[in-house]
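Case study 2.
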Amino acid sequence: MKLSPNKRRALLTGAILAAALAGCRQDMHDQPKKKPQSANAFFADGKTMRNFVAGTVPHDTSDDLHTNDSRWLAEDAAFYTGKVDGKPIDYFPLKVDAALLERGRMRFNITCTPCHGRLGNGEGTVVARGMKLPPSYHIERLVKSPPGYFFDVITNGFGAMYDQNDRVNPKDRWAIIAYIRALQLSQSVKYDELSAQEKQLVAESKKQHEETVPHGGEAESHPK
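Prediction:
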């Protein structure tokens, strides 16, 4: 069958476009690259993955740093592990101020309260639904535990608690620990140690509570 010039041109154009598209698709599938752990004859050691250049200094000022990279650990083991010479440190390796405590409160309420409760007494919502009761932060053992101990537990987990290493960055871990210390102090302060202004706040809070709780019983948690 003899094709007209227009049909021959259309078929030729279609064939060229199909070949071009097929070639492009093949290039996308077979990119000239090397995958990690693969061999590479280009380098003398035959490896694709390269070591850091000698003298490389890691630098990161981000608060979102999530790493246990040994280069950082060697620079500041106390900050990134909570330990020195294998022992938990008994101090905070950064300045504890109002901003850090506020950050700790926020991260604690988001990350920790489901299990530990807002007061740190272990009465979180998941516990009310059958999960194992964690120890209260206010028991003598944990009140006396150094900050580095809490950092290690947050980083590596403990008992039924899984590690938070990939969820909470190092600076936020210290912020949470600072807030835990504040919670512990808040539950152990004696009334006589309060200032006049603080005693007034306690009195107002007590009065408000008495006005909202029905006589002879506890306030209802929800309407029936």
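The radius of gyration is 31 Å.
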